[in-house]
Amino acid sequence: MSMPNQKEKLKIIYQLLFDLATGRKTVALDMGSLDDEYDSILLSLSEQGERIRSLVLEQGMVIPYSNFQHLSQFVFVLDAHYTIVDFNFTVVDRLKYTSEAIQSLLFESLLDDSSKLVWNNLLQQVGSDAPFFVTTELLFLTVDGFKLPLFCSVSSSLVNPFVFVLSAEVVFKDVPFLKDIPSVATEKAKAEAAVIDQVHAYILEHLDVPLPSLKSIALLFGSEEHKIRHGFREHYHTSVYQFYQDERLKKAYLLVLQTDLPLKEIAFQCGFGVYLNFYKAFRKKYGFSPSELLRG
């Protein structure tokens, strides 16, 4: 297996930062040797993540978990010459351009030099005759010079001579941060917090299978049903089942948006044995069906 290059290492660094910021459990990294500054940062972040988790659990608290509320969508409409003819508010808000500055710009003018090459190669591959739908990662430049990486879908209109560039950015809920740290954490409080944290991690790691009963979960972690029920709601402000349901539907949303998997396969990978149950749950949560999201 080839060693990750610097760009891949940078992606891992950002993933670790994301995990630390949102309370997700960081994956232990196998760092055989430190070859460059990227490796040193990776090792430091991994170690700090474990130290933070240990400190929080030592106080008898559960790791705070930040959840995304919705996806903020970027929408660009381009003409046959790939000039921007329309866009939504998110584009202006995040890239910090005025509407007047973006209107009639060549789309590639918003891209970093490396992404301009990616964009032009993409256009050569798809041509201009047949309808197309492709996905790629592009680096956008904000007015103040920062780079904003976005995973984009690029597709042609079947009716008009337009090209649509769509992307989505995660928007997080405001969640309470750590509770006031108690002056003395009892061993009982530490143990109960550790169990709730383990249940939380177990759910996230098993979104592809049906959730066991609360009684079975309690037995699995050597606890009691009522302790897990009340402890989970106290720390995460939702029930065990509702958390599982929300997380697997969010996983499904991203799979529909970012992969070419059939909808029935996505339902299966998100723990739904019957597609109709998946369809109903998805529509209830988001207000539209999986197929409607797929069509854009």
From TrEMBL:
Source organism: Flavobacterium profundi
Gene Ontology MF, one: sequence-specific DNA binding
Keyword DNA-binding among UniProt keywords: yes
The keyword Acetylation is assigned to this record: no
Keywords: DNA-binding, Transcription, Transcription regulation
Protein name listed in UniProt: Helix-turn-helix domain-containing protein
UniProt domain HTH araC/xylS-type: residue ranges: 197-296
InterPro entries xref list: Homeodomain-like_sf, HTH_AraC, PAS-like_dom_sf
Domain of life: Bacteria
